[in-house]
Amino acid sequence: MQKRLILICLSLSLSLGVQAQFDLQGHRGCRGIMPENSIPAMIRAVELGVTTLEMDVVMSKDGMVLLSHEPWMSSGICLDQEGEEIQDDPKRFSIYGMTYEEVRTFDCGSKPNERFPEQDLQESPKPSLQEVLDTVAAYCEEQDLPLPMVNIETKITPEGDGVFHPSPEILVKEIAEVVNNSPFKKLMYLQSFDPRSLEVAHDTQSDWKLVLLIEKERDVKKALESLSFKPDVYSPFFELLDKDAVNYLHDQEIKVIPWTVNFQVYAEVMRDMGVDGLITDYPDRISLESLGLE
User: pLDDT tens digit string along 21-61?
Assistant: First the structure.
């Protein structure tokens, strides 16, 4: 009996420890200091101690799931196959209209980004999700580090179905093919502004945590009505949050992880509201110790 009580207490203690951990997520790896959604950004974020790697995924013509914020080659961060500026409408270079080998001929890491002048520029093709997970897992094993969570965003819209990406059913299925055959199967968030992929994952992927992204809606109850179920995490633009919203979400047993918090002073405001984590372009700027969270 005594042994059983000890085991129960230990289990409860470990469970509470996991729940209490503040989730520092590196946005697109660490977009403030490395090319976004690149392997170097993911490795650097792990070095900086993030607990979760946040990334965006799309799909190529030949069915490869790969990292990209837009489902086309963005003229803001990419150079064409000849290393030149993309002058035409960037949507002309739809990733869903190219094979993965064609996608890899573009460089999306060497072009200076006016919004992020501190980036360590380096040639970076858009990597496959498989390559990212394999590289991060190998790095963590080599450095004897725990695996981070991964937070994968589906970049889809109803208008883009069949044009810039497949249906949410197909995209979620292909993401699952990669993630569920990796060490990250039970370390997985799926997030989206488009509820359809979350609904698909809710029906098919019981091991995943599901995250509703919110860009403009301040009414939490109204935002939650877009789903047929309660998400595990509510993830709004940080300026939309207040203490009452956080308390309401916690009463619903929904965690709150806002984006994109890039300065310590804003992180302190979020901490005082009681959020469960935050997403940042600059994991090097956010000190959990200063927040009293480490």
Answer: 899 999 999 999 999 999 999 999 999 999 999 999 999 99
Cut 0.85: pTM above it? yes
Separation in Å, CA 50 to CA 40, 53, 145, 149: 14, 7, 11, 9
In a 10 Å sphere around its CB, with 0-12 CB exposed, 13-18 middle and 19+ buried, how is residue 292 labelled? exposed
Query: pLDDT digit string (tens) for 157-207?
Result: 999 999 999 999 999 999 999 999 999 999 999 999 999 999 999 999 999
For 82, what's the count of Cα atoms within 13 Å in the CB-facing half-sphere? 4
Of the candidates 102, 50, 111, 63, the one whose C-alpha atom is nearest the C-alpha of residue 83 is 111
CA distance 30 to 187: 19
